[in-house]
């Protein structure tokens, strides 16, 4: 059975439902996972800084308890969001990814960015409000371009010093104010490897909660230039033949999808589906 997750703004004054707990060490979980009966959690010694109603999972209300400090709960432990990304339940990862983004946004908007006064949550709306400035702050989504550069049977992959050892991936970067998606893609490729691209093709998008990105995925053909990795940003970049690829990103990521899709099209195989 495939679980169904729908985001929503829920009334935290209502009783019942399920909840996830996020603290400095990640999400709380036990042998059954990170979803707990909400009323049971409220009886635990947790330093709850804020509570947010975040949606429905298979019709059941789900809330986020955001902690202000680390806590120990008997029979439970903590796990980072990236670890959940690599595990089997994609819907659960989406729930936790959304929870992380809402928790981060609300934590970062406790005070008004204009006057510094305390902000309050707007009932029945995903917004923080400053009565002094009449300013509302909504969750932010930052557009980012991610691109696989292709040249026949070769694809250009790079690795950052932050990557898992040996893993190579596609190029990516955040859009600057005033840029189109295509402008951003061309600029990022020039900055990171100093090559030119052409025939840019939009492929798909994926929300990425690290911290709050909307990844817009593209294929683009190589148009010229020699690879020169950007200092302090790109550890290595090179062309790889599709028959001899290095270790690649996690299978659920849009980076991996861009690679797998191109390889499948090149070899005449069935095309993969981007996890949504």
From TrEMBL:
One Gene Ontology MF term: zinc ion binding
Stretches assigned to the Nudix hydrolase domain: 139-262
Pfam (any one): NUDIX
Entry binding sites for Zn(2+): 112, 115, 130, 133
UniProt superkingdom: Bacteria
Function: mRNA decapping enzyme that specifically removes the nicotinamide adenine dinucleotide (NAD) cap from a subset of mRNAs by hydrolyzing the diphosphate linkage to produce nicotinamide mononucleotide (NMN) and 5' monophosphate mRNA. The NAD-cap is present at the 5'-end of some mRNAs and stabilizes RNA against 5'-processing. Has preference for mRNAs with a 5'-end purine. Catalyzes the hydrolysis of a broad range of dinucleotide pyrophosphates.
Subunit-level organization: Homodimer.
Protein name: NAD-capped RNA hydrolase NudC
Source organism (scientific name): Pseudomonas endophytica
